[in-house]
Amino acid sequence: MDLRSARINGPGKKKSVKWFAQIWAMLLFTFVSFLSEAQTVNITGVVLDEEEMGLPGASVQEKGTTNGVVTGLDGDFSISVQSGATLVVSYIGFATQEILVGNRSSITVNMSADVSSLDEVVVVGYGTMRQEAVTGSVASIGGDVMREVPSANISQALQGRLPGVDISQTSSQPGATMQIRIRGNRSLTASNDPLIVLNGIPFAGSIADINPEDIDSIDILKDASATAIYGSRGANGVVLVTTKKGFKGQKAKVSYSGFHGPRTVFSPYPMMDGPEFLAMREAAGLFESPGASESNDVNTDWQGLFYQTGTMSSHDVNVSGGGEKSTYSFGLGYYHDEGVVPTQQFDRISMRAAVDQEIGNHLRIGFNSNSNFNTTQGSQVGSYGILSLSPLASPFNPDGSRRRNISMPMDDVWVGTRDVLNELDGQWLNENRTYATYNALYAELKIPGIEGLKYRANLGLDYRQTNNGEFTARGVNSPNPDTESFAAVGNSHNFHWIMENLITYDRIFADKHIVNVTALYANEQNKFYSSRMWARDIAADQFQFYNLGNSDGEIQINPNDQNYQLWGLSSLMGRVMYSYDDKYMISATLRSDGSSRLAPGYKWHTYPAVSVGWNLGKESFMNNVSQVDMLKLRLGYGQTSNQAIAPYATLGGLGIRPYNFGNDALLTGYFVNSLPNPNLGWEYSETYNVGVDFGLFNNRLTGSLEYYITNTKDILLGVNLPATSGVGSYTANIGETQNKGVELALNGLIFENNDWSWEAGVNIYANRNQLVSLASGQDRDEGNWWFVGHPIDVIFDHQYVGLWQEGDAHRDILEPGGNVGMIKVKYTGDFDDEGVPTRAIGPDDRQILDLQPNFMGGFNTRVAYKNFDLSIIGTFKSGGVLISTLHSSSGYLNLMSGRRNNVSVDYWTPENTEARYPAPGGLASGDNPKYGSTLGYFDASYLKIRTMTLGYNFDNASKWMTKSGMSRLRVYGAVQNPFVLFSPFNRETGLDPETNSFGDQNAAITDAIPSRLLTIGTNSPATRNFIIGLNLTF
Amino acid sequence: MKNIQLYLKSIKVFLLTGLLLVSCTDILEEQPRSIFEPGFFQTEEGIFGGITSMYAHLRYIYGQAYYYNTTLTGTDEATYAQSADQNFLVMDLSGQGDIDPNNSRADALWGAAFSNINTANGIIEFAPEAGVSEALVAEARFFRAFDYFLLVQTFGGVPLDLGSGELAFNIEPSRTSVRNTVPEVYTRGVFPDMLQAIDDLPSVPRLTGTATKTLARLYLAKAYLTYAWWLDNPNNIPTYPETPRQDPDGNSAQWYYQEAYNIAMDAINDPGPFSLQETFYDVNLAQNDRNSELLLYADHTEDSEFYNGGSLVWGNGAAPDNFAGWMMTWNYTVLRSSSSSSEWVGNIESVRREAIQATGRPWTRMAPPIGVITNTFADKTNDSRYDGTFTTVYRANNDRTPLISGPMYNANLMEVQAGDAILTFLDEEPDQAINYPSPSSLGGNIGAGILPGRSDFVISPSGISRIVHPGLWKLGPYRTDSGSGLGEPNAGSTRPFNIAKLSELYFIAAEAAVQGATGSMSARELINVIRARAGVWRWNNNGNEEKIEDNSAEMIAATPAEIDVNYILAERSREYYGEGYRWYDLIRTQKWEELAGTYQIGGMSYSDRTPQTVTRNIQPFHYLRPIPQGQIDAMEGDRAIYQNPGY
């Protein structure tokens, strides 16, 4: 029986059914009910919505029992209850009501739409809680609301939806997942990724393995008082993902949802066209003679010959239902995403099953299983080659045949246009195939004799394997048609198990004292291994990567490509939650974790956490304040850890250096490249959190405001040692960081009458990150760009202040060998008495440039008129620095020399001295303009509409709907990524200002920017998608 | 009901299992299975691996083009070329920016040497227990001394204690460092190990290219010689950390000159399996790599990408690739011929990028000043070394696949065939004036000239510029797997990068003799061994034809009766041009400013062939390279005193 089914029926509202809650509550109530012995009465009634229409499918339940029914087509119900019982009536999107039966035998229940979501149940880890009683910082979103952004995975869907949860794109390729940062970065070299928990089991896979259609709810634990129950893994926040389940007493329900639509390039990369390029090359004066393929009267749009129109489509079928003592739910999904870069695509088939069965009165067992098979293809196709091609080169030879290579003044580049790639069918491949299965089995036993005491065993069994196959036929992607073919296969396997033993005690004493005690003992182990091998000169193209043995060339198994990692975690946890009269709440947690990754003697750490809440709104003195419906203060403190360093990091390691002694001895050399650290222990974070939740004006405006401070100590750091130590690095507990931040979430029903309604929600948050200390006595680590007193993520580079103009003083001193029109950077050295600089600009002039945005957030709004609804979801960011490697030296697309094509920029000429970009052909550092790296820094501000959806819900009371047996039919059209506002980067380049790469990716030079910084590089371009979708329920 | 019973039973089993799993404690223990722990280093196999890695470490120094640049650019052998970036420009010391701790690429040496020294420390420490032979340990001793010798020449005094004590295997994550003085490094870090290595190393290499007695003698002799000069300090060049020019062992400069001479003569008289090649051409011919004259090289192979250390198809210009040869290769691929015999259309890429020793991958970062052609290699007739050093003739390769078909016309619209010269850098200024057509693209697209009756474009010595100049044939690539095609010119060179040659022993002994050492052979006699060999021809490299001549007598006759250091330096340049010796030769003898203070070369664009005279600003502090910024950044403590003065 379903206790709480207050669900959300549309955008802007959060859903509340959490199946964990049901399980827990149900057990409790069954226990209670079978202790009581009283006479029963029969009650009939009807549940009506605000328009006095019957609400079919609403849940009517006898409070404190598992006894319940679901209303019929007209909202009617009939139930036998004990006399004096209370009925709990709930329905998706309506406020749950409790009705005292009294002496009545017939009851009419008028439901009103639930705007406040205050009665939601949230998953808090090892259990659920009513939102009202939550004392930690938890952000929740229902599956339906999340799916308003149709996407390949939940990280995409969640972007900008929740305060304090910063989700950034790290790749724009089909199926790519995003980086999730909860309340900033804490760690320097260890992971800052949050812990993901799928159906109660710590998740050992990729977020791409979870089908968003399967999601029932997502709850994110943000502060340590909430995450301390995950102890050593809670420091980066916890994302609790719950997949769909069936309802008790629910008739089998079959639903389909799907969407389909094209993907188009949001904006091509801003490369120069023929005349522009020619003018720039001439201004540079470095390449007087064109390349053999070039001609000054040609103007080729290479990107136009490259991109294709992609498609996105998704199809999901779900079946769910329940009997008296069991529930079930099954789902089958297919997702297909084809990119705009030819051959890039992602496909996923997912299956889900959840079954729950009660056995007798004391025992309940069940499982849920989520499995998927997915393939990613085409990641070998990059864009740099095409972008760098000279627009002065025609794709065709004078005789009309297609050019294999383009010869530019210094470079011969293989041409991989769309047509070429399509013709290469089967000759240039990169395929990743992943199979993953995530399973949670549980059994729950009510201990007879002690009311409210339960034992539960959870067993998580997960397996994930990935196969990678690559094949590049002879001459493909090489200017030399004879370059040997190449094939590789890679495999990885991950086995994960966890065994949790939980004892819980739930009691309500004297109606006002609610006590919940949880104790846990758990063991967990994860084994990962991977291997890869490759071969050259495959005997025939037909073999692709399926038979590396048929190779006439080198076959290699590189020791650096083989990997084995086994780690274990042992945990003890206890938690007490107590609330008095729903006014005063306290929650206290203690967890001890032991990890295999740390050094003996330092493996265990204990994490305390405590939080309190005060529901001011329930105090009598607030009764007169009619505008305030709810007001709660929360205060929390907790300690959590980060064990996310690689296994074996305490042991040190040897590097590998292969060498050939002539042609007769091929040997592998070893040298010590990292030192052991027998003292390596935990890095831990202390968080203080204060929050206020409120509901105003009849709960038409609800929201919460939070402030937090997180201090992270004993940071696990791969310390780079100076070369003179003879060793590259070692891992140590060094340093301290701090994050402080404010988060605000507001939801409002702005307007509502019979036909119209308008709702809006917004979240804004700001995080201030600071590196408090590094190793003793060290206040800067220039090699890693870490500086005490600054955020972890900074740029350490010269500061662009303009261009050197004719007549500017002291250029000869500051920039020996420089030229007019070159980049001018800040000089911080001394001046002599005459005001003349005393030295040339050099490394001492580098500045620390803060990347942090001032604030960021997201918004959503929904306007409904009769059966139509229009919703808009967007994100925004103010301030901060966006790094574009397209424009900086590391991308090799802004050489300003005319050697290869160049991003279209406004550059200095004697006639155009106010330009931002330097004179072509000026002083170079490497192949780039000196200080060219400073050209890649842009204001990161933007406001972006992510999705605009126009939907129509067919009237489910209409005859044809009833006849066809459909209970819901919705069609919608959506545009994703329609436009960007307030973005200086977008204004200059036309590009999407969202990052698409890690700092070491999609650039020609991959060590110029630390990989932790996200950049815009030459990844697949951002897309604008047009979608038509259908939701259907029988 | 029966089913329920069954259910209950299975549930009980399930729960019991859960409780049992609870008792696992070994899940907190670690056993790596895909990586080595440092402890492996103390086993016999680990020590063998350590020794292999010492040879592999050479690849991070030799063939690494940025380091290569620091050894040549700014000397009389090289200046920056048209595509030079800051790393090359500043090294020229000609007003194109100052050398600083960031742009000085001697960091390649700094970054590779200490880790290797530590590996050597470990091997020397752990070998006795692991039961490794003295001969093998001697290889580690050789490399420790080798690295310290390189470091002390380049940076001045460097630390002997990496954190766990002097010359001890470091297990301390030390972020501090104290520099020893130059005499401390020589007398404690170089000489003892090298002496021991001479005793313990075999005469015949253990494997192709491994260390031998002869190699250790070469380096000890060179170290003695270099240290003797340092003690001498004829031009009062400063050292750092500051220290008196006194030998802690109480020996004089003269004593060290004599020892250098003696040790070199030991090796000359007992070279083991090593011998001089018959011709200079053969020393550097790719087909003859790893020949009997070569004592040490950073090896590479085209047989295995893994053991080669770099891609066999595309190099990115980073160690461990051997890409030094790209630097002095100008962009010859710009050369064009015409498909029409009646008018110049310049539409045929007659010299495409090819993986052969004469061409390779053009980076146009470094160029020889005109003086190299006119002074250093003044004699191009008797002396085979100019021909065996440079590519002066660029030949059509239109017959390589993909074929370029149809007739091809070149200078004077004369027809040329595959293999014919398209461009020739003339040995001398021609008697007849060269006709430079206008616009410059008519000169083979590169502003070259035309002489009557010649189908190849020509450039005379005075016409070489930063954009068009003879290429460095010595370091050109060579592949056996190119078939009928152009091969893989974009990969790093799969040839070994030569580091030490038997011939240098003659130069070391001769230089010591010039500085006062005496013995069985005079400086002139020693130098004449080299010069006589240079006079022997068997192949005209740039003429691409057999040439059997022995001009030894003429070469010896041309040797001055009294030779001085300058003559030895000039002879060294003829022998080792472009191999990375020059800066060390000039700073050792303190002749840098004198010999490289000015140079001449044409400009940056194709039509700009007027020689310009450039003056360099070589200061005494430039005799030491700056300590790399990465070292300073990673250190704690007083970092200012760590840096060499002037930077």
Automatic annotation (TrEMBL), chain A:
Pfam families: CarbopepD_reg_2, Plug, TonB_dep_Rec_b-barrel. It comes from the Bacteria. Keywords: Cell outer membrane, Membrane, Receptor, TonB box, Transmembrane, Transmembrane beta strand, Transport. Residues 427-830 form the TonB-dependent receptor-like beta-barrel domain. It is found in: Cell outer membrane. It is a multi-pass membrane protein. Its main location: membrane. Residues 131-238 form the TonB-dependent receptor plug domain. Belongs to the TonB-dependent receptor family. This is TonB-dependent receptor. It comes from Belliella calami.
From TrEMBL, chain B:
It is found in: Cell outer membrane. SUPFAM superfamilies: TPR-like (SSF48452). Keywords: Cell outer membrane, Membrane, Signal. It comes from the Bacteria. It holds the Pfam family SusD_RagB. Residues 61-225 form the SusD-like N-terminal domain. Residues 490-647 form the RagB/SusD domain. InterPro entries: SusD-like_N (IPR033985), SusD_RagB_dom (IPR012944), TPR-like_helical_dom_sf (IPR011990). Its main location: membrane. Belongs to the SusD family. This is RagB/SusD family nutrient uptake outer membrane protein.
